[in-house]
Design brief:
alpha/beta; Lambda Exonuclease, Chain A; 5-stranded mixed beta sheet; 7 helices; 8 strands; 37% helix; binds iron/sulfur cluster
Length: 188
């Protein structure tokens, strides 16, 4: 599954494709040196789930590894509630829901259904305000949109020119490592 795309990088690719290149260059190093404050908090929010501490209920699956051969993607879900056939993605804060986050949830959904799980509803859960936000199940058109996006991801060329968006760059966790810009991020 070497050429499978990690579901967790879909949102990063929308934010800036070059960040995926930087992630691959630096992911072998000390992640704590790379991650800025919001990302660290987001990762902490996921820690209990990644360590399978969030729920001991037998009808709830956490941190399940999932994959789709059809889409060429691999990743982990946050929480699947069996009695409700509901797939949930936790985020520490959710002031806005970005398309990349929806792609991640769709991707998890397609993985689970391909693996034989029944999923009848999707939702985000905002930890900071204890709020559940339902998301529609993806349609066939949505699936095609996701497939097109994955195709673009797989064929991205990091040597091509990029027009950095300075507002994005100043909030990018790779800002201090990026050779495309000459600025600091807002977290330093
Ligand atoms: S600093 Fe800017 S150009 Fe560099 S990876 Fe981040 S968003 Fe992209």
């Amino acid at each position: 599954m070497d050429d499978y795309i990690s579901i967790s990088t879909l949102n990063d690719f929308i934010f800036c494709p070059y960040s995926i290149y930087l992630h691959n260059v630096y992911m072998g190093g000390d992640e704590e040196l790379v991650h800025a404050t919001p990302q660290t908090r987001g990762k902490a929010a996921h820690t209990t789930i990644d360590e399978q501490k969030y729920s001991t209920r037998k009808d709830e699956l956490t941190a399940l590894s999932v994959y789709s051969n059809e889409l060429g993607i691999i990743g982990k879900i946050d929480l699947y509630v069996g009695r409700e056939k509901k797939l949930i993605e936790r985020k520490y804060q959710l002031n806005n829901i970005y398309q990349g986050q929806i792609y991640q949830l769709w991707a998890q959904y397609f993985c689970m259904t391909e693996m034989g799980y029944e999923v009848e509803s999707l939702a985000f859960y905002a930890i900071s305000v204890n709020k559940t936000i339902p998301i529609d199940l993806p349609t066939e058109k949505d699936k095609q949109e996701l497939q097109n996006f994955i195709f673009r991801f797989k064929h991205y060329d990091p040597t091509k020119d990029l027009n950095p968006n300075i507002n994005k760059c100043s909030h990018c966790i790779y800002c201090s490592l990026c050779d495309k810009i000459d600025t600091e991020n807002v977290y330093t």
